[in-house]
Write a structure and sequence with these properties.
Elements lengths: L1 H11 L4 H11 L1 H37 L6 H49 L2 H4 L2 H16 L1 H27 L1 H31 L1 H14 L5 H6 L3 H53 L5 H42 L21 E9 L9 E9 L3 E6 L5 H8 L7 E6 L2 E2 L5 H5 L2 E5 L9 H6 L9 H10 L2 H6 L21 H14 L4 E5 L7 H14 L4 E5 L3 H4 L4 E6 L2 E6 L1 H7 L2 H14 L1
Parallel strand pairs: 3-8, 3-9, 6-7, 7-8
Antiparallel strand pairs: 1-2, 1-4, 4-5, 9-10
Helix pairs in contact: 2-3, 2-4, 3-4, 3-7, 3-12, 4-6, 4-7, 6-12, 7-8, 7-12, 8-11, 8-12, 9-11, 11-12, 16-18, 21-22
The chain binds adenosine-5'-triphosphate.
Keywords: ATP-binding, Membrane, Nucleotide-binding, Transmembrane, Transmembrane helix
Subcellular location: Cell membrane
Protein name: ABC transporter ATP-binding protein/permease
């Protein structure tokens, strides 16, 4: 019973095909319809060609035995066959052209869907390895499913061809069909069995394949090259890669060999059936039960049928296998991300009036039992510059992530102008905040775009981009580039210019000035700036964002002391909060760290 249901599972995956085809259809309707029509006509050409062949042979024999030779019908038949042969060739080319175009269009459309969907995914999901594997499988599908479309359509086309050939054979000798089908069924079941095993193998190896990709990436990338050389890591990486790759290869090899052997054996059964049937037709011709033309037609039809059925069956397993992968893609695309946290949704304000309040907020990361933030309560007043201070791992970035709603508090609440932020649509709420992180993305695109990503709708607003660059001191960097704002950054592309860490940070900081957000957050994006530059950057930042609320995380106290108030975190709790002077008087962690850093500079 389990075997039967396992076997039926092969067919279950086919339920994704209509949706897949309708997506392909939507990418370009006329092209898709054209492709289907071409295939429809093409599917009937084989039987037409065989029939004309039969007519030609019979006509030749008739003329041989005719005392007065009349070749006019023969010529017409040959012209028709010639025409059909040309048509068949032209159709083949047009079909593969339209297949290719539709495949490209589908691949583009599904990649876009994937990008859009990934943007909606919660950060917590992306950090979950099981989910990440699903995304990984879905990503692979966007480019490798192109052949699935032509396989499905070719399958439909071949089924029509086979039906036409079968009808012809049934007309002559139905027994032959029976023989043919019986001989081909073992081959079919075998293919199905192996396609399932192949998918299971690939699926169960997803984490290892991901690791292989990662090893390949760190082993052969410009980003890691420096450390790999200096620490002599090449052997370590290739050994790790080889270990996993060998195991995967062994598992895959075993399956491929078994698949080939069984397929070969079952193919021989098919051959035997064909030759059995061939002898049968030849004998019928010898006793005069069929004409020589009919012999050629029947043998040709039989041969084509056998080949085509083999193709259909092995293609069927290919399709079911691909459709199983398709399931991963659709599973991902169909994932629902529930924005509704049980809070009635209200209209999101366009600006803040009084400020933000953290009310007894505690948080632990999903799949973790440790509280990273514990009973955090404080107020961020509109227009205030608040600095977050604390040792590594104290929870500063996590607090920012909660404010940005990249995660939801485990308990407690965050209020904006007195209202729980969960009452606002998440994406709308996030527009109120602009954040630049320490691990900001270096886009290997132009300097202009690298700044414009802070507010991408302004990508064509050169004045605003240049103004933002001036504010963050990035203009000095950009002016030194050969192509200025149109210079590609990073070494990924031939003409790209690589920047120093601090130069990249100046560019990233300009993003903060692009944004019209009410609250600006700078989470250590200045750590690579030299002391003078950081000082200058923050002086400017504070001056230029006077009316805006901001949160700054920095380990440099010369910067921190510029803030209106400072919040000190220790092991996820608030240790102290106040102005620089107040905290210095408090003589706790802040004054200790401040003195420590100051002493370091003085000595
Ligand atoms: N995605 C995550 N999943 C699980 N734990 C996390 C995750 N991100 C951070 N943590 C943990 O949360 C704690 C606080 O991290 P956080 O990044 O907020 O510290 P931080 O104060 O910003 O540190 P730093 O000064 O080093 O940037 C750390 O113990 C860290 O291990």
């Amino acid at each position: 019973m389990a075997k039967i249901s396992g076997w039926l599972n092969n067919f279950v995956s086919l339920r994704y095909l209509p949706r897949f085809l309708s997506l392909v259809y939507k990418t370009n309707k006329p092209l898709f319809i054209g492709n289907v029509l071409l295939r429809l006509i093409k599917s009937l050409l084989p039987i037409a060609l065989l029939w004309i062949g039969k007519e030609i042979i019979d006509e030749v024999i008739l003329q041989i035995n005719n005392p007065i030779v009349d070749l006019s019908r023969l010529y017409i038949l040959i012209e028709i066959e010639f025409g059909l042969a040309i048509l068949s060739d032209v159709f083949n080319r047009l079909i593969s052209l339209t297949d290719g175009l539709l495949g490209d269009l589908y691949s583009n459309a599904s990649s876009i869907d994937l990008i859009q969907k990934t943007a909606k995914v919660e950060l917590a999901n992306l950090e979950d390895s099981e989910f990440y594997d699903k995304l990984e499988r879905a990503r692979r599908q966007t480019t490798s499913r192109v052949s699935l479309m032509s396989n499905v359509l070719s399958q439909a086309q071949d089924i029509i061809t086979v039906t036409s050939l079968i009808s012809a054979l049934i007309y002559f000798y139905p027994i032959l069909i029976l023989l043919l089908i019986i001989s081909i069924i073992p081959s079919f079941i075998n293919e199905l069995k192996f396609s399932k095993s192949s998918y299971s193998l690939q699926k169960s190896w997803t984490p290892e394949r991901r690791e292989l990709d990662y090893m390949r990436m760190i082993g052969a990338s410009d980003v890691t090259a420096k450390e790999i050389k200096l620490f002599g890591l090449a052997d370590f990486i290739s050994d790790t890669f080889k270990n996993i790759a060998d195991k995967y290869y062994q598992a895959n090899r075993k399956l491929s060999i078994r698949r080939t052997i069984w397929a070969g054996l079952f193919h021989i059964i098919g051959d035997m059936a064909y030759y059995g049937a061939y002898i049968f037709i030849v004998l019928k011709a010898v006793i005069g039960a069929v004409t020589i033309g009919e012999l050629s037609f029947l043998a040709g039809s039989f041969n084509q049928l056998r080949n085509q059925l083999q193709t259909i069956f092995s293609r069927f397993s290919l399709i079911t296998e691909s459709a199983l992968y398709l399931q991963d893609y659709f599973d991902f695309i169909d994932m629902e991300f529930d924005d509704d946290l049980g809070f009635e949704l209200w209209e999101t304000p366009t600006d803040i009036k009084t400020g933000v309040t953290f009310k007894d907020v505690s948080f632990k990361y999903p799949q973790s039992n440790t509280y990273v933030l514990k009973n955090i309560s404080f107020e961020l007043i509109k227009g205030e510059k608040l600095a977050l201070v604390g040792e590594n791992g104290a929870g500063k970035t996590t607090l920012i992530k909660l404010l940005l709603r990249l995660y939801e508090p485990t308990s407690g609440s965050i209020l904006l102008d007195g209202i729980d932020i969960r009452h606002y649509h998440k994406a709308e709420y996030q527009k109120l905040l602009g954040a630049i992180f320490q691990d900001f993305v270096k886009y290997y695109l132009t300097a202009k775009i690298n700044i414009a990503v802070g507010n991408i709708v302004e990508v064509e607003n050169d004045d605003k981009i240049q103004d933002s660059a001036t504010r963050s001191l990035a203009n000095e960097v950009i002016e030194g580039l050969p192509l200025g704002y149109n210079q590609e950054l990073g070494k990924r592309f031939k003409k790209g210019a690589e920047l120093s860490g601090g130069q990249w940070q100046k560019i990233a900081l300009a993003r903060a000035y692009m944004s019209d957000a009410s609250i600006i957050i700078l989470d250590e994006p200045t750590s690579a700036l030299d002391a003078r530059a950081e000082y200058e950057v923050f002086q400017r930042f504070i001056g230029l964002t006077k009316d805006r609320t901001s949160i700054i995380i920095s380990h440099r106290f010369s910067t921190v002391r510029m803030a209106d108030r400072i919040l000190v975190l220790k092991h996820g709790t608030i240790l102290e909060i106040g102005t620089h002077e107040e905290l210095m008087e408090n003589k706790q962690l802040y004054s200790e760290l401040f003195e420590l850093q100051a002493a370091g500079y003085k000595d």
